[in-house]
Amino acid sequence: MPLGTIALLLAASFSLGALPLTGWAVRVFSRRDLRALGTGNVGVSAAFIHGGKLAGIAAVLAEIARGILPVLAGRFCFPDAPAIAIALLIPLVAGRYAIARGGGVTNAVWGLLVFSPPVAVSSGIWGLLVWGLAQRWWGKGDRARLFASRCGCLCTPIWVWVWRQSMPEFLAAAGLAFLLFTISLRQGDDMALSKSEQLFSLDDSLDAAICGDKAAKLSQLKRAGFNVPSGWVLSQEAGIGHRASGIGHRGNSDELSISNASIQNLKSKIQNRMIVRSSAAGEDGETSSAAGQYQTIGPVFTEAELLDAINRCRQSYWTSEAVAYRRQRQLPDTQMAVLIQPYIDSEFAGVMFSRNPLDGGSQVIIEALPGGAESVVGGQCTPVHLEIDFSKPESLEKKLTELKSNSIISPSILSELVKQAQAIEAFFHGIPQDIEWSWDGEKVWILQSRPITNLQPFWTRTIAAEVIPGAIRPLTWSINRPLTCGVWGEIFQVVLGERASGLNFNETATLLGSHAYFNATLLGEIFRMMGLPEQGLEFLLRGQKMGKPPLGKILPNLPGLWRLVQRERALNAEFKGDRTSIFLPALQSLEKEEGRGKKEEGRGSSEEEILMSNAQCPMPDYQYLTELLDRAEQIQEWLKPITYYNILGPIGLAIRKAIFRVDDDWLANDSAPEIASVRALQQLAQKLRQAAVSQRDETVSVADLAQTFAENPALQADFEKWLDIYGYLSEVGTDIAVPTWREQPEVYQKLLINMAQKAETNLVEKGEIGLSFSQKWRLDKCQERALVKNEISEIYARLLAHLRWTFLEIEACGLAMQVFEESGDIFYLEFGEIQQWIRSGGSVSFKDTISQRRDRLVADRDRPIPPVVYGNLLPNSQTRAIDSATSETNIIQGIPASIGRVEGFVKICRTASTDLGENAIAVVPYTDAGWAPLLLGATAIIAEVGGQLSHGAIIAREYKIPAVMNISEATTRLRDGQKVRVDGYLGTVELLE
Predict the structure, then answer these.
(1) Spatial CA neighbour of 210 closest among 181, 179, 233, 243
(2) What digits encode the pLDDT tens for the residues 600-634?
(3) Which of 123, 449, 716, 835 has its CA at a distance of 20 to 30 angstroms from the CA of residue 861?
(4) What is the 3-state secondary structure (H, E, C) of 751-811?
């Protein structure tokens, strides 16, 4: 083996490695020097990051060629000694690192690929497997990537031995792997640095985890066509790990070492004045606003001022007030991204709510002052306050007319602001928005948009209005809510698995204004976890179509969805088993207990007789009441599994119909209780008509039919049999407060006579539908489930009817014991209250409780019920007066800022360091962010200046502290210890002494 040739090849390889090919490529395409950028590493990743795509591609091609040449030369010169080909990569990589300042990984990978493809591919696959495991251990990030890269290098000799089984080749590969591993430990990582030094534009899709919620939302609005100023974001990691003195962690006041190149890059993008704004994780989020917690600095002119402003903005993340806020809101400490935008010279600016922040009502709230929006949110001035009810078009016209002479905002701008507010809310899927805006004399600019955090959760009547419509009494809800929430929680847990552990399924539904609502916020979160599209929330809030879920988001949920599919497939068999072992025996025992199965008891035709058979109390004592309560509790235990079937059955049928494309007309639904009952009644009506016609001529009146029915025992017996079979049904099957058919026979007797009076009484029989073989096969996949669904519905309704009849018996005993005053009283109690009464065996009076709840139900029946409620309060239809109060009244009118009504004693707080004491109502001159620690300890807040969108008002709403703003001279008009009543909804302070 000629040593001279080997030495020449080694020297040539080193020289080839020393050539700065990547540096040349970047200079040609971007005119930049990689040695002065980033980590100073002149590598392929640095070329892409700092030089752009063209420079990166040129660098990749150059390094591929550089890695292949030594291997080809070694195989050509020494075909019988392949180890030399690998060995020649060692001086190549050494030259790249020592002189060309590169890492050599690209050269080694492509050189090995030419030398032995199986070795290179095996090493790559091993590296990917290690990367996946490292991500599970450390999470996604640079640490996992670097670890996988180094493991890929170190495993290369092993794969050389596996595939080649040559000791010289193994040793050469081991030397190369050791060199690459050592270089990776010593060399900087431009990919990690790029994440911190990279500028993200608002024109791009931004990740809130990297750029913060504020920047991410502005990016969405800007890309959607809203007037958002251009802007660039330094990510949360910018400068961390590259500090002059170690700033970036808590408690350190030194400055971040942000490169001059980044500052110069920012200044080149914004030629004129700039503003530096915070964009922290959790700021402007769905559950926390962090209003006023972090600093905004502007205007900024020079590069030095820009660097200082960025550092000051970052350091505000670690102020004691900001840290305390995150602790209170249970937000983790991370880092802060910084948003840099052009500074807008505003003629006037302000903030607006797309909905009333107090109760989610249909008013756009606009507050404005001359100059920048910080004057409004700062809380040190009282802004122009406008409320425009967008549910009433005439309200906007009236407000525009009023504004012509007494507002800084022209009618045209006001109209534009209202349109913008509604458009932005619609863009964010119906979530009410808190929007900061500015008018520069030409256009309205959107500077910020975040959810109104106190208007959560969102409650929707979608689905709920169909499941349990109308005004609901307390007893019905106290039984239905745990059943419904429990079953939905079980279904979602099947799909989500461990991810469901942090969800509170007891909050799935609630009553607002005596009407049922589903928790759209919780369901929206579940939809997102299941990979359903963003339109899922619009489906709940606005009734929009759901849309198809993206495949990439569905794939991670396939195991959970498969578990749900398995349950759905097993439903028929499981229900049939439970029907035989649980439900039928349960119904038989209930009928036996209630005596309706005994013929000798008989049944009258009057309402009184039938009610007595269902609601009698032979022994009005606590022993009998306890037996009835035990029965009610047992029925609820039986209702749990049938409720599960009653929810999953229709869902499964709907999915099957969609998958197999089966029309409703194909399905035979004769066994459905609502259809079978009407068919049977119409058949009975036909008998009645025939009997009446046989006694008279063809024309029969209602009176004739009624007389025929009264004189015909056989028809009466048939009607009683019909009531026996279908008397468990009611107008609202899910509401046990609604009487069943059995309890009001005269209504259905009249319906029978009306049916018989018509010439055509037979229900049109469903004809045979001609289906193809394929259609019959598809129908077969759904028909059995439809029949089972009908059986489930019947058992569910029967059990609810027996539960109602049991409560009627309890009520009858209560009436005899003078616990209740009139029929129906029991349905105004909750089940827990009934349990406590009977189990305690003591004397109780529910008179006041029932009276209050009955009055509330009557009022709720007459009030408008919105399809969506924001927060936990129905919008108040009461008109709130905003006129200033006179000195002659004990009620002082201000601006309502946070809902709640509190009576207490005043504490005048002229500074934020005042000792507030306990349970005091804080009276303050203004409410900027620095007052937050003091305000959190108050039972209510009264401020001399400020509006609904000031920092103090936002904080009050987040913490549910009643607050009233704009009470002129409050710190002098009120005195320490004075008793007042604060109404944060009406915006009033009432002097009680």
Answers:
(1) 233
(2) 334 343 333 333 344 666 666 888 899 999 999 99
(3) 835
(4) HHHHHHHCCCCCCCCCCCCCCCHHHHHHHHHHHHHHHHHHHHHHHHHHHHHHHHHHHHHHH
Which residues 6+ apart lie within 8 Å of 41 measured at CB? 34, 101, 102, 103, 187, 188, 189, 190
Output the average pLDDT for the chain.
Answer: 81
- Distance, in Å, from the CA atom of 217 to the CA atom of 431, rounded to the nearest integer, reads 13
Tokens (6 digits) for 362: 């249909």
Query: On the CB side of 792, how many CA atoms lie within 13 Å of its CA?
Result: 28
Contact 386, 408 (CB under 8 A): no
Residue type, 774: S
In the three-class reduction of DSSP (H, G, I as helix; E, B as strand; rest coil), residue 337 is classed as strand
Neighbouring CB atoms inside 10 A of 878's CB total: 8
Going from the C-alpha of 285 to that of each of 357, 504, 948, 949, the distances in angstroms are: 16, 20, 19, 16
Contact (CB, 8 A) for 854 and 924? no
Report phi then psi at 521, rounded to 5.
Answer: -65, -45
Predicted confidence (pLDDT) at residue 247 exceeds the cutoff of 80: no
Distance CA 753, CA 684 (A): 10
10 Å CB burial of residue 280 (0-12, 13-18, 19+) is: buried
Cβ 369 vs Cβ 349: under 8 Å: yes
Three-point CA angle 236, 241, 247, nearest 5°: 75
Intra-chain end-to-end CA distance of the chain, in Å: 110
State the pLDDT at residue 697.
65
Helix (H) or strand (E) holding 109: helix 105-115
Contacts for 187 with CB less than 8 Å, ≥ 6 apart: 39, 41, 97, 103
What is the distance between the alpha carbons of residues 440 and 958, in angstroms, rounded to a whole number? 31
Residue 875, token pair as written in the block: 């919008």
Q: Which long-range contacts (CB under 8 A, 24 or more apart) does 312-316 make?
A: 312/276, 313/276, 313/277, 313/278, 313/338, 314/247, 314/248, 314/256, 314/338, 315/247, 315/253, 316/278
544-591 pLDDT, tens per residue? 555 565 555 666 778 888 888 899 899 999 999 999 999 999 999 998
Q: What is the pLDDT of residue 606?
A: 39
Least confident residue range of 255-259, 344-348, 349-353, 759-763: 759-763
Provide the edge-to-edge strand list for the sheet that holds 458-460.
Answer: 509-512, 515-519, 458-460, 868-870
Dist. CA 140–CA 150, nearest whole Å: 16
The rounded distance, in Å, linking the Cα atoms of 779 and 544 is: 29
Model pLDDT for residues 140-179, shown as the tens digit of each residue: 666 777 787 888 888 889 998 989 888 999 999 999 999 9
Q: Name the token pair of 338.
A: 């910084």
* Cα–Cα distance for residue pair 309/276, rounded to 1 Å: 6
Which pLDDT band holds residue 189 (cuts at 50, 70, 90)?
low
SS3 491: helix
Residue 835 backbone dihedrals phi, psi, to 5 degrees:
-60, -45
Burial class from Cβ neighbours inside 10 Å (0-12, 13-18, 19+) for residue 884 reads exposed
Q: What letter would DSSP give residue 979?
A: E
Give me 661's structure tokens. 């494309």
Stretch 861-876: mean pLDDT, rounded? 82
Residue 905 DSSP one-character state: E
Sheet holding 979-983: strands in order across? Answer: 891-893, 988-991, 979-983, 901-908, 920-924, 940-943, 963-965, 895-898
Handedness of CA 318, 319, 322, 326 (dihedral sign): positive
Interior CA angle at 433 toward 429 and 438, to 5°?
125
CA-to-CA distance for 579 and 638, rounded, in angstroms?
Answer: 11
What pLDDT sits at residue 393? 67
